[in-house]
């Protein structure tokens, strides 16, 4: 689980850095983002900051599970709430399945993995 947390931290951290420092490129490169509305650099960087904090929490847990577990929980909570927003948006569309499939690898899977690590690796 610690290795999974470290890999997830790396991937989410890279995503966060792209959102923070290459916002316009990120906006055009990630499938489906353009469909959410016009480019808003401040909003992209805000969410990038949340992803960076999440990545730090996962990395902290990977390095020091007992001390880092609370930070992991907070990161998992962000990812889960973010996924719920995406589920709601998909459910409100005329054809939700393509939206769910599009968001599965980048939104739902990280949330599921982080939440599973937090639940199943809770320190005693």
Written overview of the protein:
- This protein is an all-alpha fold and 124 residues long.
- 82% of the residues lie in helices and 0% in strands.
- It has helices at residues 2-21, 23-29, 41-63, 65-91, 96-120.
- The chain has one domain (2-120).
- Keywords: Membrane, Transmembrane, Transmembrane helix.
- The chain crosses the membrane at residues 42-62, 69-88, 100-120.
- This is DUF4345 domain-containing protein.
Q: In a nutshell, what does this entry contain?
A:
This protein is an all-alpha fold. It has five helices and no strands.
Element order: H for helix, E for strand: HHHHH
Major β-sheet, in short? none
Instruction: Quote the average pLDDT.
Output: 96
Query: How would you sum up the global shape?
Result: globular
Number of domains: 1
Q: Give the terminus-to-terminus CA distance.
A: 16 Å
| Helix/strand structural class | mainly alpha
| Count of β-strands | 0
Compute the gyration radius: what is it?
Answer: 15 Å
Please estimate the helix content.
over 70%
What is the number of helical segments per DSSP (H or I, 4+ residues)?
A: 5
**Beta-strand proportion:** under 5%
Weakly predicted, low-confidence segments: none
Essential attributes:
124 residues, mainly alpha, 5 helices, 82% helix, globular
């Amino acid at each position: 689980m610690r290795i999974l947390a470290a890999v997830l931290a790396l991937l989410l951290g890279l995503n966060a850095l792209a959102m923070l420092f290459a916002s316009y490129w990120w906006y055009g490169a990630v499938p489906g983002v353009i469909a959410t509305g016009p480019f808003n650099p401040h909003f992209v960087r805000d969410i990038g900051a949340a992803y960076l904090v999440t990545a730090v929490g996962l990395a902290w847990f990977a390095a020091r599970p007992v001390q880092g577990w609370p930070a992991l929980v907070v990161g998992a909570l962000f990812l889960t709430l973010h996924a719920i927003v995406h589920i709601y948006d998909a459910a409100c569309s005329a054809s939700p399945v393509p939206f769910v499939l599009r968001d599965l690898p980048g939104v739902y899977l990280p949330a599921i993995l982080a939440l599973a690590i937090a639940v199943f690796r809770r320190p005693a």
